Amino acid sequence: MKFFSQPLFKRLLFCLLFGLAFGFFCAWFASIGMVDPEPYWWSPLMWGIVYNRVLIGLLVFFAGGINICEKCHIKIWPSIRGFAVGALVSLDLSIWFLLVPNVERMSIMILFASSIIIGGVYGMITDIVSTRFIGDGMKVEKGWIK
Fold first, then answer.
1. Among 51, 78, 52, CA closest to 65
2. Which of 17, 116, 121, 137 has its CA 20 to 30 A from that of 53?
3. If phi over 0 gives left and psi between -120 and 50 gives alpha, with beta otherwise, what is residue 73?
């Protein structure tokens, strides 16, 4: 049972659960403006949103190992690292909004930009909270190196 008490496993579990929670919240939030949200629930679109947010959590976990830029000797803050990971992963989901037919271009651009920003905020919150309570970098990895 020593494996489950390791900080690295705790950070992985924490980030994945945060991503799952944000995924279902984001899927619920996307259904608010729909006239008939019934066909949306349990559809590939809903699962695509949930998967995207879980992927943010997974990549925030991996990015947690990078906390110092070796060449410039600068500490990378969890807020910047998490926002960058979340925005980058959300870019994939946002591109699909550009392909929606018969919708006003301005509202599509708002969906595109807001999806990237919200994904960045989800990544930032996940990274800040997991770093605060569990740690990042060598603090998390030291139990596995022994």
1. 78
2. 137
3. left
Q: Are 20 and 54 in contact (CB under 8 A)?
A: yes
Say if CB 89 and CB 52 are below 8 A apart: yes
Within a 13 Å sphere around the CA of 37, how many CA atoms are in the beta-carbon half?
10
Structure tokens at 23: 């995924």
Residue 141 has pLDDT above 70, yes or no: no
User: In this structure, is the dihedral angle defined by the CA atoms of residues 131, 48, 111 and 116, taken in order, positive or negative?
Assistant: positive
* Tens-digit pLDDT profile for residues 77-127: 899 999 999 999 999 888 887 776 666 767 788 888 999 999 999 999 999
Q: How far apart are CA 46 and CA 28, in angstroms?
A: 9
Phi, psi of 75 (to 5 degrees): -75, 135
